[in-house]
Model the fold of this input.
Amino acid sequence: MKDGSNTLVLLERLGRLLHNDAHREDLKPTQWEALRLLSRANRFSRSPGAVTAYLGMTKGTVSQTLAALERKGLIKKVRVPTDRRNLALELTGEGKTLLRKDPLADLEAAARRLPKRQMAHLGDNLQDLLTEALRRRDGRPFGACKTCRYFQPNVDGGRPHRCGLLEEPLSTQDSQLICVEQEPLG
Ligand code: SF4
Done:
């Protein structure tokens, strides 16, 4: 490693802190990540396949993770009659309550002590780094729906928006959520 190596070592240490913190409330780090994803993902992205794409892990590991969360009563499978994919994973009330004790809160508190502009700058840079790292692995970005090239704002027959890829109506709340199919505007 040459240029930027210190930055990468810092990132690794930060990742280690987060990983160590995430053994809380009888959950593992991956289980926390899956809960976070399900709290932020749109209805097209709450499937085992989408969780697998997001975590970048094997199908088997993700299926064990989801089974453990279901056994603990933190997530459930629900039918979505308006969606052709039909079955989605959802946080239960207990899952939502547990997420209020998210171990990331500690880092969030540390981040609040930094100037807002500095944090925004850091966020932009980390996003660029992640995008490039995912591109090299054919990973999916999971960006916000409203930043997708298929997002059609305020169209006839929308609710008020529409997805041009899946041909489904989208609410304003949907537009804020992240999506497995998202492709950033060029
Ligand atoms: S517009 Fe893009 S991000 Fe939104 S639902 Fe469609 S594919 Fe997903």
Remarks:
- The mean pLDDT is 92.
- Residues 42, 44, 145, 148, 150-151, 163, 165-166, 179, 181-182 surround iron/sulfur cluster (CB under 6 Å).
- The first strand starts at residue 75 and ends at 79.
- Helices lie at 5-21, 29-40, 48-55, 59-71, 93-99, 104-112, 116-136, 172-176.
